[in-house]
Specification:
- By secondary structure, this protein is an alpha+beta fold.
- 46% of the residues lie in helices and 15% in strands.
- It has a four-stranded mixed β-sheet.
- A hairpin with a 5-residue loop joins strand 1 and strand 2.
- The longest helix is centred in the first third of the chain and has 17 residues.
- The chain is globular, with a radius of gyration of 18 Å.
Length: 156
């Protein structure tokens, strides 16, 4: 089953990669019962969207199918170890298991910057040549946050 799912992700990734729609990345989400919910690939180039990574696309599709943002009990399969953005999305989706093919150093070898971003995060995001942070309007934003808290809405 697992080999079949990763092979489907590889096939789709190869297809979109060869159409120059994105990189060599594919992903699939399966539910608790092992049913395939979504199969997606990287479409960054075709969609002109830097967030259109395979894992993100697969999570979006699975969430739509399930009608919820909470994918607890699901497993995500990916042709590569998730980048920091995808890893965050996986955690936000409450997916607790990732099955991956290639390692971060494999992506680094062919030119992807995942490791660069991981290092930036590990250094407390303090390198302003990479990204500069500026706090502004905190009091007004805190008011908005308090309004949300007072509504006692579900935290996701």
């Amino acid at each position: 089953m697992k080999k079949d799912i990763i092979n489907k992700a590889i096939e789709l990734a190869r297809e979109t990669m060869n159409k120059n729609l994105g990189g060599p990345f594919g992903a699939a989400v399966i539910d608790r019962e092992g049913n395939l919910l979504s199969l997606a690939s990287n479409t960054v180039l075709g969609d002109h969207d830097p967030t259109a990574h395979a894992e993100i696309n697969a999570i979006r599709e699975a969430a739509k199918i399930k009608g919820t943002h909470d994918l607890s009990g699901c497993i995500i399969y990916a042709t590569g170890y998730p980048c920091p953005m995808c890893l965050s999305a996986i955690i936000w989706a409450n997916i607790k298991e990732v099955v991956y093919g290639c390692r971060p150093e494999d992506a680094d070898e062919i030119g992807f910057r995942d490791d660069f971003i991981y290092h930036f995060i590990k250094k407390d995001m303090s390198d302003e040549t990479v990204l500069k942070f500026k706090e502004e309007g905190r009091q007004d934003c805190l008011l908005l946050f308090r309004e949300y808290a007072e509504q006692e809405r579900k935290i996701y």
